[in-house]
């Protein structure tokens, strides 16, 4: 199965994290599917085809992780805008912790085999990256809000 991603990571890696990644993007703010795909591309996940992303968004919505509303399009068709629900925020926090634990186990395994150097991602590096990402998300939301006249 191809994901439509153009990055160099194996497609199976993306299939394993696309739900978590899409939810993380929507934690930055409500958005339509195409904008979610653009943000994932900006984050280095490659260009996702709608046939990959939209079923994931639909599954997350049916699981109560996301909700959606229809918003009128500016000079075009309406758009389905997705939002992270309260349940989704809790799920994302839980999955984020689990992801960190999983990544640490993988780092230890790869380090023990010599497959990666001692510069493997550490908890402090992840914390620094998370803080930087949070700052970027805040600036992005503020910029979007100003550009769109305060409307998300």
Question: How would you sum up this structure, described in words?
Answer:
The protein has 152 residues and is mainly alpha-helical. The chain is built from five helices and three strands, in the order αβααββαα. The chain has helices at 11-27, 33-45, 50-62, 86-113, 123-147; strands at residues 31-32, 66-71, 79-84. A three-stranded antiparallel sheet has the order 1-3-2. Helix 1 (11-27) packs across helix 2, helix 1 crosses helix 3 and helix 1 (11-27) packs antiparallel against helix 4 (86-113). Residues 24-93 form the Transcription regulator PadR N-terminal domain. InterPro entries: Metal_resp_DNA-bind_regulator, Tscrpt_reg_PadR_N, WH-like_DNA-bd_sf, WH_DNA-bd_sf.
Give the topology, please.
Elements: H1 11-27, E1 31-32, H2 33-45, H3 50-62, E2 66-71, E3 79-84, H4 86-113, H5 123-147
Antiparallel strand pairs: 1-3, 2-3
Helix pairs in contact: 1-2, 1-3, 1-4
Query: Care to count the β-strands?
Result: 3
Biggest sheet, open or closed, and with what strands and sense?
Answer: 3 strands, antiparallel
Q: For the largest beta sheet, what order do the strands appear in spatially?
A: 1-3-2
- Which parts are unreliable, with pLDDT below 50 for 5 consecutive residues or more? 138-147
Shape: globular
Order of helices and strands: HEHHEEHH
Distance between the termini: 34 Å
The CATH architecture category of the domain at 11-85 equals: Orthogonal Bundle
What is the helix fraction of residues, given as a range? Answer: 55-70%
Rounded to the nearest angstrom, the radius of gyration is 17 Å
**Helix/strand/pairing category:** mainly alpha
CATH class designation of the domain at 11-85? Mainly Alpha
Quickly count the helices: 5
Give the CATH superfamily of the domain at 11-85.
Answer: Winged helix-like DNA-binding domain superfamily/Winged helix DNA-binding domain
* Assembly state: single chain
Pfam families: PadR (PF03551)
Protein name: PadR family transcriptional regulator
InterPro entries: Metal_resp_DNA-bind_regulator, Tscrpt_reg_PadR_N, WH-like_DNA-bd_sf, WH_DNA-bd_sf
């Amino acid at each position: 199965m191809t994901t439509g991603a153009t990055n160099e990571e194996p497609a199976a890696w993306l299939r394993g994290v696309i739900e978590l990644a899409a939810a993380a993007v929507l934690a930055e703010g409500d958005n339509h599917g195409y904008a979610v795909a653009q943000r994932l591309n900006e984050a280095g996940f490659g260009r996702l085809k709608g046939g990959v992303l939209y079923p994931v968004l639909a599954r997350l919505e049916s699981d109560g992780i996301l909700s959606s509303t229809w918003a009128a399009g500016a000079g075009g068709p309406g758009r389905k805008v997705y939002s992270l629900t309260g349940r989704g925020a809790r799920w994302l926090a839980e999955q984020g912790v689990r992801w960190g634990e999983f990544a640490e186990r993988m780092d230890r395994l790869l380090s023990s085999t010599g497959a990666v150097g001692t510069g493997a991602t550490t908890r402090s590096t992840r914390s620094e990256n998370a803080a930087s990402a949070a700052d970027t998300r805040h600036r992005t939301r503020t910029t979007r809000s100003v550009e769109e006249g305060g409307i998300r």
